[in-house]
Amino acid sequence: MIQLDEIQKRLLSEVADLHTVPEGAYNIRSNSQSAGRRSTANIEIVSKTDVSGLEIHIRPGTKNESVHIPVVMTESGLKETVYNDFYIGDNADVVIIAGCGIDNCGNQDSQHDGIHRFFVGKGAKIKYVEKHYGSGSGKGKRILNPVTEVYQEENSSVIMEMVQIKGVDDTERTTKAVLDTGAKLVVRERLMTHGQQRAISLYNVELNGKGANADVVSRSVARDDSYQKFDAKIIGNAECTGHTECDSIIMDNGKILAVPGLEANCVDASLVHEAAIGKIAGEQLIKLMTLGLTEQEAEEQIINGFLR
Amino acid sequence: MLELKNVSFSVDVNGKEKDIIKNIDLVIPDNKLIVITGPNGGGKSSLAKLIAGIYVPTSGKIYFNGVDITDMGITERAKLGIGFAFQQPVKFKGITVLDLLRIAAGKRLSITEACEYLSSVGLCARDYIDREINASLSGGELKRIEIATVIARKTSLSLFDEPEAGIDLWSFGNLIEVFRRMRKQITDGSIIIISHQERILSTADEIIVLKDGRLEMQGSKDEILPALIGTSSAITDCKMGAMKGGAEE
Q1: Structural domain that includes position A34
Q2: CB spacing of B103 vs A291 below 8 angstroms
């Protein structure tokens, strides 16, 4: 395993809560190279031969195992596109932790575009956690454009947590999901943008089987002069239920565009969307100030809770 | 000790100035439980908010333990030891009961310590500690949590704005007990409750009656209460139940 320096270790702890080598299967990618990999009896990680990226095969019935595939970048000017495919066997139940941390101290843009595809077998359950984090004082931008595609077979269940709280200048996140009979998808997105940052999040969820269910919820805070767009579309092609929600706080000169979209192509599809954008409620600030917090401390508490 | 000197407060209503509080002189001595009552619209809540710093007086001065706090903000007054329980508890997203109690106490309370505050307002603590302070809690639960946050602050002046509002009759009995206990535990400070509930008035050492923004009466409970019984300044339990159409929880 390649030795990681302090900055790389810090990025790893930010995006994957990793302080040492993780338990279970893992692949750590550092500045476009594999800094360590381990497969287990049930989870095999192999490099793709045609493009940069991994194939992760999880055997049917694998229970209570985890896969970590964090990415860290500390070289300014690095641009990469990585294709990772996950094949999750029937009735497996696993946790997959991805995430990308970029530290850019130089003047050239650093960019990581991760394209993740999940083929989720019948009755399988996965929890997928993806955190983004950027740091560094250089003028070069930190850019992340993740694409996530999820193909869910009958009665499978996917929970996705997407978190980007700090330091990423530009993001365009595209998530596509196709659900078969009885499949269930839960997405929880947490986003905060600062400065001149821009974050776009696009969802396209197709509910193709009876009893399919999707719940896509984004909570976000746009500060300073940042811009966010949340565009979530759920398409109901069968007797199914879908819900999208965008709940946002704007501060300073932040701008947010929420475009919830629903398309029902079946009379038994039941789809709901909710969107709310506004500044922090004055009464919340006042309440916390009567408990002795300054206005700024109160704001922090409210935002921390909101993005929890 | 809290002292208001010639305090007035007016608001702008459609370009016209409306006087809410008119030239009030008031002294709240230490080691007392004071209940402020009076008809609706008489200025009770506004007076409490002026003391907490949520409203700023149009004229006059407010002194707390000899310090002029008239120009101090909410935070500064809170740090000096003024606590305020809202009539309508504020809801949050993602902030839990434990978070709020820790903020109130100004330290990282242990779960056991936090639970004691909840138990003191009659909530079965373990069920609530991790709950978010949002609309999933009933009006009565929110109200009791609100009171617990003020108790957790251990302030020398604690203000409760209509603590009985939104509470059902059964919880109301417990609430009276909470105030009785607080009254016993006062060491160096005082409690002000805004209420027109006769049973809350009966826990008072002193009663203040506000009407049309003016101080109408101030005196000991025994002097004031008999004259109030049967008026809108001292509503009995039965009327409370009838007014609310029964239990809310």
Answers
A1: 6-279
A2: yes
